[in-house]
Amino acid sequence: MKKVMDPRFSMILSMTIFGTLGLFVRNIPVSSGELALYRAILAALLIAVFLIATRQWIPFADIKKEIPLLLLSGAAMGINWILLFEAYKYTTVSLATLSYYFAPVIVTVLCPILFHEKLTGKQIICFVMSTLGLVLITGIGNVGSKTDLIGILFGLGAAVFYAAVILANKFLKTVDGIHRTFLQFLSAVLILIPYVLTTSGVTLGSLNGIGWVNLLIVGLLHTGVTYCLYFSSLKELPGQKAAILSYIDPLVAVLISVTLLGETMTVWQAAGGLLILGFTLWNEISLTDPS
Q: Is 262 left (phi over 0), alpha (psi -120 to 50) or beta?
């Protein structure tokens, strides 16, 4: 398929949009599970329309062996969303996002176990310093409030399940990016429907106009459109450039948290965020990268 957008611009745009997610989620008064379900449904419908319009049929015969793993990764994605949305409810967008960005550190630690990759001295340093950053964010036992700590723990839980999605994708070899995303969204829908029906139930009728607008933006823009932009650019960009550009997401989230939402961070929490982002980024890039 012919490229219609520069991959670097697609990555920058997708990361910027991802960074605004918390701002819109705050204006949707439904439970986290319900919001995750609607997000998955709207995104799956949008991608389905795109696949049909472009005649990109899913080769089920070729990918049938990987369908169980796709279902598991989709379930992990749904749980990841629920925990992240809960984090937004209990703490600031900044702290929720920064704790969520501990996911690459988790992946770094688990890759040697799952893929027999060697853990280098640099990776060990990055793990230790990023963990120190997480300790600073939680306030070293003196976090701003009990709800902040709960929110940070939800964000860390979301990071665990996001790491599970990343690791599952490493095992998926025959499924294209957009097909993979579509099937993961469908899997998330299947997992989330019984969860929502047995917990909060369907409360769409309680949404006002602002809530509906924000829900459509989160489902169609932040998920359907932006995931497609992200995966299409990821396929074209060198890994290190993609890693660097991905840090636009937490930076935008922190800026929005402080400037638009008026949320505050302590000096120690800011330092912790810098440690997590800085050392995770250093772990992703190489000083000898010629690109």
A: left
Helices (H), the chain: 7-19, 21-25, 32-53, 60-63, 67-90, 93-100, 103-115, 121-137, 146-171, 177-198, 209-216, 226-236, 239-245, 248-259, 267-284
Residue with tokens 């823009």: 221
Structure tokens at 57: 């049929």
Instruction: With cut-offs at 50, 70 and 90, classify the pLDDT of residue 4.
Output: low
Q: For the chain, give the mean pLDDT.
A: 85
Q: How far apart are CA 195 and CA 40, in angstroms?
A: 14
User: Which one has a higher pLDDT value, 228 or 217?
Assistant: 217
Which amino acid is located at 244 in the chain?
I
Distances (CA, A) of 232 to 3, 10, 201, 202, 250: 9, 8, 35, 33, 21
Contact status, residue 217 vs residue 28, Cβ threshold 8 Å:
no
Residue 282 — very low, low, confident or very high, per pLDDT cuts 50/70/90? confident
Buried b vs exposed e over 12-39: b needs ≥16 C-beta within 10 Å? ebbbebbbbbbbbbeebebbbbbbbbbb
pTM given for the model: 0.85
Sign of the dihedral defined by the CA atoms of residues 264, 268, 274, 280, in that order: negative
Predicted pLDDT at 143: 52
